[in-house]
Amino acid sequence: MLVVVGPSGSGKTTLIQRLQSGQALTELHTTVPTVGSNISDLRIGTNKKSPVTVRELGGCMSPLWPVYYTADVSGVIYVIDASDVTQTACAAVLLVELLEHPQLQKAKC
Ligand SMILES: Nc1nc2c(ncn2[C@@H]2O[C@H](COP(=O)(O)OP(=O)(O)OP(=O)(O)O)[C@@H](O)[C@H]2O)c(=O)[nH]1
Ligand SMILES: [Mg+2]
């Protein structure tokens, strides 16, 4: 299980949609903010035959992200929108909190 986290509107759902389709994002897709979490199976990495379960956690529920840092989380995908400078400080604080979380010390980031 991978968790996908990052500030609201940073592009988590967009990234997952792109990985699912396996195609470049050639046009802007409309998404709705994720309230709660979304689970998807992705065929990524070297072994495309075995899907990887990814759980996106909505940015609006960042105080609750640690609830989902369970023992079966083997990796974290942290998404930031590098073009949105208003989000940089928030993204950095959330990332430090994530990196310091005891349950994620063995997870790959
Ligand atoms: N951040 C980002 N957004 C993009 C990019 N290209 C397109 N977008 C648009 O920006 C919006 C990003 O929204 P989402 O993917 O829903 O963001 P999110 O991180 O899932 O947000 P929450 O679920 O609210 O936490 C979408 O409307 C995308 O179409 C990009 O390169 N970066
Ligand atoms: Mg989302």
Task: Write a concise keyword list for the protein shown above.
single chain; 109 residues; alpha/beta; Rossmann fold; four-stranded mixed sheet; 21% helix; 18% strand; binds guanosine-5'-triphosphate; binds magnesium ion
What does this structure look like?
The chain is an alpha/beta fold and 109 residues long. It has a single domain (2-104), classed as 3-Layer(aba) Sandwich (Rossmann fold), CATH 3.40.50.300. Helices cover 21% and strands 18% of the residues. It is built from two helices and four strands, in the order βαβββα. The protein has a four-stranded mixed beta sheet, covered by helices on one side. The longest helix has 13 residues, at 88-100. The structure holds guanosine-5'-triphosphate and magnesium ion (MG).
Question: What's a quick, concise take on this entry?
Answer:
The chain is α/β, with parallel strands linked by helices. It has helices at residues 12-21, 88-100, and strands at 2-5, 37-42, 52-57, 75-78. The protein binds guanosine-5'-triphosphate (GTP) and magnesium ion (MG).
